[in-house]
Amino acid sequence: MNRTALEPISKTFVDLDDGTSLALHTCTPDDDRGVVVLVHGIFGSKEDFDAVLPRLAAEGFTVCALDQRGCYESSSEGPFSLETFAEDVIALVEEIGSDIPVHLVGQGFGGLVVEEAALLEPDFWDSVTLVSSGPGGLGRTEPLAFVEEQLAGDRPLAEINQEFLDMLHMSQDQPAELVAERLAHTDRRAVAAMIDAAEHTPDRTQALHETGIDFHIVFGEYADSWPIAGQIAMARGLDAEPVVLKGCKDHPVEDSPQAAARALVHNFLQLD
C-alpha cells in the first residue's frame, strides 16, 4: 500500500425504486482510480469488508460494500432471488453514475451475485473478482440442506449460522455482538433465497467467459466451502490465473486484509 494513513469508513443508504434501501460502507479517497463494489456471502454483511475497504481506498479507489437486500441494515419487502440481488448491485452502480472503471468483487455466495450482475449487464464492469466462490451452486449439500430446513421453523438465525459454520469447520470472523445484531435484523426470506441459489444455480463458466469481462479468481490456501479443484477449473475456463493467499481460509479479506487488498490492486485490477 502506498499510504500510511487509512481512509475512514462512512455509512450511507441508497434508496431504490422498488422501496429497497441499501446500507453501504464506503471509503472515498482524494484521487479516484476507479470504483470497487464488494458483495458479501450468506449470513454476511458489509462489515465483512471493513478491514480491506480503507486499504483499497489508500490506493485511490472509491470503495463500497453493501448489505444485500434484507440483510442487516438493508431493508426490502422483496422479492428475494439471485436476480434481484444482482439487480441491486447494478442499480447501485447506476446511482453512483461513475464514468471511471468499475470493479466488482464477490465473496462466497456474493460471487454468484456478481456473476449474475455480469451476465445481466456485461458492459458495466471493467473486472469481476470471485473470492472463495464458484461458477454455480454447490448442489444440496448437508450444511445447505440444514439451513434450508431450519429456516422453516422459528429458530434464531444466529443459532442456525453458528451450527452452519460448525458443519463447515469454519470459525466466526466477526465479533459475536455484531453477528447477533446483524442476524437479528436479517430477513429469513433473504437467507432462504441465498440458500436456494447456492443449491441450484448452474455452472455458468462458458456464459461468463463469453461476456469478455476480465475475471479474476482468489481463494485462501485452506479454503473448503467451495472445492479448490472447482475454483481452479473455473479459473481455467475464464482464462484467469488463480491467486492463492497463504494462511487464509474461505474469507481472505478478513483473514489477511493487507494481502487481500494487495492482490486485488496488483493482480486482480491489473494495475502497476
TrEMBL record:
<dbReference type="InterPro" id="IPR050266">
    <property type="entry name" value="AB_hydrolase_sf"/>
</dbReference>
<protein>
    <submittedName>
        <fullName>Pimeloyl-ACP methyl ester carboxylesterase</fullName>
    </submittedName>
</protein>
<dbReference type="Pfam" id="PF12697">
    <property type="entry name" value="Abhydrolase_6"/>
</dbReference>
<dbReference type="InterPro" id="IPR029058">
    <property type="entry name" value="AB_hydrolase_fold"/>
</dbReference>
<dbReference type="GO" id="GO:0046464">
    <property type="term" value="P:acylglycerol catabolic process"/>
</dbReference>
<dbReference type="GO" id="GO:0047372">
    <property type="term" value="F:monoacylglycerol lipase activity"/>
</dbReference>
<feature type="domain" description="AB hydrolase-1">
    <location>
        <begin position="36"/>
        <end position="262"/>
    </location>
</feature>
<dbReference type="GO" id="GO:0016020">
    <property type="term" value="C:membrane"/>
</dbReference>
<dbReference type="InterPro" id="IPR000073">
    <property type="entry name" value="AB_hydrolase_1"/>
</dbReference>
